[in-house]
Design goal:
This protein is of the alpha+beta class and 224 residues long. Helices cover 24% and strands 30% of the residues.
């Protein structure tokens, strides 16, 4: 009589289990790392796009408002000893500034006692959110007075700025100059034909990016 053969079920050894767990852990780490790199790249691209958009808006606004700069000989001579409309560009290395009067003001309230003329200033100042960097600020003064250097409202246009540079096209000398002041005798009655704006910004990837544009001033002679 033949004996019935019974086969015993063979399980996994401890070494096999440990190898399987190790392989699964390695695959999990690789997958998690891939997800982290994908999320980081996504966040970086979004941050880059936001910075580009902020710079484009700032450059567009500066170009539009500078193009509407003007001087005028029509003012109250009893109130003002000097002409209240000005155009003053200071060369300060990487931190240039520009103060000028323009037909660029937009009234937000119907009965506001304001016109379309105002005094504007573009300058760099300490970035409140990023230590060691600057931010681009815009100051607007809706009523012209005898102290153009003070007063008005201040708003930040762009952060993470490393440098701001203005250059002015002298249409008489046919050359660029780094400064312009209508308070001087040479340029008391003229504005530059074009203004070049260069802005350098630190991008989220840590690299500095330079942006440049030019704008043409419509009225280069004082209104009379």
């Amino acid at each position: 009589m033949k004996r019935a053969r019974h086969t015993r079920a063979r399980g996994f050894t401890l070494i096999e289990v440990m190898i399987a767990v190790s392989i699964s852990a390695i695959i999990g780490v690789l997958v998690a790392g891939s997800f982290q790199r994908t999320i980081y790249a996504k966040d970086l691209i979004e941050s880059q796009d936001e910075r580009y958009s902020a710079v484009r808006l700032a450059m567009t606004r500066m170009s539009r408002e500078i193009s509407m700069a003007f001087l005028s000989e029509r003012y109250d001579h009893k109130r003002f000893r000097e002409r209240p409309t000005i155009f003053k560009g200071n060369d300060s290395g990487d931190r240039d500034s520009l103060i000028f009067t323009a037909f660029a003001h937009e009234r937000l309230f119907r009965d506001a006692k304001e016109s379309d003329q105002s005094l504007l200033e573009y300058k760099l100042d300490t970035d409140p959110d990023h230590q060691g960097l600057y931010a681009l600020f815009r100051r607007e003064k809706v009523h012209l007075d005898t102290d153009p250097e003070r007063g008005g409202t201040l708003a930040m246009l762009c952060d993470n700025v490393t440098s701001l540079d203005f250059a002015y096209w002298d249409w008489k000398k046919k050359d660029w100059t780094n400064e312009w002041s209508t308070a001087s005798a040479e340029r008391a009655s003229q504005l530059p034909l074009r203004v070049r704006i260069r802005l350098e910004v630190k991008m989220p990837d840590g690299k500095n990016k330079k942006f440049e544009t030019q704008t043409r001033i419509a009225m280069i002679r004082p209104l009379d």
